[in-house]
Amino acid sequence: MKIHELAGQTGLSVHTIRFYEKEGLLDSRHVQREKNNYRSYADEAIQRLKLIKKFQGIGCSLVELKEILQDHDARTRTNQQVIAWIRRKIDEIELKKQEYDQMLDTLGWMLEYRMLLETDPQKANAMLASQYDV
User: Fold this and answer.
1) What is the spatial distance between Cα 71 and Cα 78, in angstroms, rounded to a whole number?
2) What is the spatial distance between Cα 130 and Cα 128, in angstroms, rounded to a whole number?
């Protein structure tokens, strides 16, 4: 299949697919050059790109993606190593979740303060003053 078909089936842009190919995430099992130098993608490329999207969805970097796909292809890690990686990824996401919760709390406070400025400026000023009381 051509790259535009692959893009349509995966929801990725042509640019993104070419980038993944350039970075080595797609290899000769997934893409071949025809005599006219056009790329021809195998059906396996669809599954590969879906796998890449899944791992990106859990916050994997390009470096991590390369490692994961190399392991996936060669089966170099033991099950215990994969379990340890999953646990580290869970810890990383939990930390990010805590950071996002703090950001949401701050934004919630800011919104409440700004809304009070319009309806009850005295209460807004008291809210601001209490923010700095220690």
Assistant:
1) 10
2) 5
Residue 79 half-sphere exposure toward CB, CA atoms < 13 A: 0
**What does the pLDDT look like over 3-14, one tens digit per residue?**
999 999 999 999
- Alpha-carbon span 64 to 54, nearest angstrom: 13
Q: What DSSP state is assigned to residue 37? A: S
Global pTM reads 0.74
Report the Cα–Cα distance between both ends of the chain, in Å, rounded. 65
CB distance 76 to 70 below 8 Å? yes
Angle, CA 110 vertex, CA 104 and CA 115 arms, to 5°? 125
- DSSP H helices in 23-120: 44-57, 62-74, 79-119
Task: Tell me the mean pLDDT in the region 53-67.
Answer: 92
